[in-house]
Amino acid sequence: MDRMMTLVGKVAESDSSVVVTGETGTGKELVARCLHANSSRRDALFLPINCGALPEHLLESELFGHEKGAFTGATSQKPGLLETAQGGTVFLDEISALSPSLQVKLLRVLQERQLRRVGGRREIEIDIRILSATNDDLEALIAKGTFRSDLYYRLNVITIPVPPLRDRLEDIPLLTQNFLEQLNNKVDKQVVTTTQEAIDVLQRFNWPGNVRELQNVIERAFWLTDSDSIVPQDLPAKLIEDVQPAIDASLPYGEAKRVYLEPFEKGYLSRLLEDSEGNVSRAAEKAGLHRSSFQRLLKQHGVRSSDHRT
Ligand SMILES: Nc1ncnc2c1ncn2[C@@H]1O[C@H](COP(=O)(O)OP(=O)(O)O)[C@@H](O)[C@H]1O
Ligand SMILES: [Mg+2]
Fold first, then answer.
1. CB 118 within 8 A of CB 77
2. Mind listing the pLDDT tens digit of every residue in the chain (310 residues)?
3. How many CB atoms lie within 10 A of CB 115?
4. Which of 118, 122, 194, 271 could be joined to 66 by an S-S link, Cβ 3.0–4.6 Å?
5. How much is the pTM?
6. Is 225 touching ligand 1 by the criterion CB < 6 Å?
7. Is residue 54 packed enough to be buried (19+ CB in 10 Å), middle (13-18) or exposed (0-12)?
């Protein structure tokens, strides 16, 4: 992340096109905003556009605008988003979703710094910086023939890869504190810290949804906790159950097995209670156990049914 931020600092002022790559939720849009905020265009618009969100013809008229009568429903003239962002930065998210014909039109914008609205004849001069993002391997798409290599070279003067959260678990305490502060400032509830036990749980998960998923987990825990700190019980059961504990061969057999199985016990019981909305009798029935033995297990593993009542 330090190397990435150094790169962001160097590239921000360059006005070059940049492709930000990385899994979903890693912070690609945040990086793009950061590039814009540190560029000479900072006082102009930053315009994010998701290329995967609209069907081709709608995206085309959104991006390039249209003249009156260009197609059925084009009752008036409308400038496109690329025009609207004059002087600023356009962030094209999910760039790999661009259709072949839009790829050609975008290439023209990058090469000639001009565009024509749909149904228009006039060339419009365009002064924008284009940043884009993808979680696909664009070079593989080029090899497959679905992404133009000439567009790729124009877009990708510089690549900034954003690492997945699982490769920088040491960021979790900082990110968590940052999200808590944001929430504390926003609403009338104060949660000041996360216990070390909860941080340990967070750092053992593999975060397929990356920072966005962490943010959701912290927001949920913020609302669930009864105290001024977040404890493991405030975290979703899947975080506890998806964890593969390490086998500790320095312990005697019984002890090593107990340590290894503890996350299973906790995860199983929590998940069952979550599914039964904290109803112990129903959870015990699903587990095929007597209510009293089930209660004993809960107590033994420190799982509280009240945490799972909705
Ligand atoms: N380093 C970070 N610090 C604080 N918040 C972050 C960080 N990285 C990502 N986020 C937050 O995580 C969420 C997902 O980030 P986003 O940039 O939309 O990811 P992507 O575009 O890669 O899917 C956003 O709410 C963003 O503010
Ligand atoms: Mg995004």
1. no
2. 999 999 999 999 889 999 999 999 999 999 999 999 999 999 999 999 999 999 998 999 999 999 998 888 888 899 999 999 999 999 999 999 999 999 999 999 999 999 999 999 999 999 999 999 999 999 999 999 999 999 999 999 899 999 999 999 999 999 999 999 999 999 888 988 999 999 999 999 999 999 999 999 999 999 999 999 999 989 998 887 666 667 888 999 999 999 888 878 988 998 899 899 999 999 999 999 999 999 999 999 989 888 787 6
3. 22
4. 118
5. 0.79
6. no
7. middle
Please give the single-letter amino acid code of residue 303: V
Tokens of 68: 């009156």
In the DSSP assignment, the letter for residue 118 is B
DSSP 304: -
Contacts with 127 (C-beta within 8 Å, 6 or more apart), sequence order: 86, 87, 113
CB atoms within 10 A of CB 35: 28
How many angstroms separate the alpha carbon of residue 274 from the centre of ligand 1? 28
Q: Which residue has the tokens 């979903």?
A: 24
Residues 6+ apart with CB under 8 A from 304: 233, 298
CB-side neighbour CA atoms (13 Å) of 35: 34
CA 9 to ligand 1 center in whole angstroms: 18
Alpha carbon of 25 to ligand 2 centroid (Å): 6
Closest protein CA for atom 17 of ligand 1: 27
Letter for the amino acid at 113? R
> b or e along 189-207 (b: 16 or more beta carbons within 10 Å of the residue's beta carbon)?
eebeebeeebbebbebbeb
- Tokens encoding 294: 């089930």
Distance 207 CA to ligand 2 centre (A): 16
Tokens of 192: 């000041």
Ligand 1 site, residue 22, Cβ cutoff 6 A: yes
Closest ligand to residue 174's CA? 1
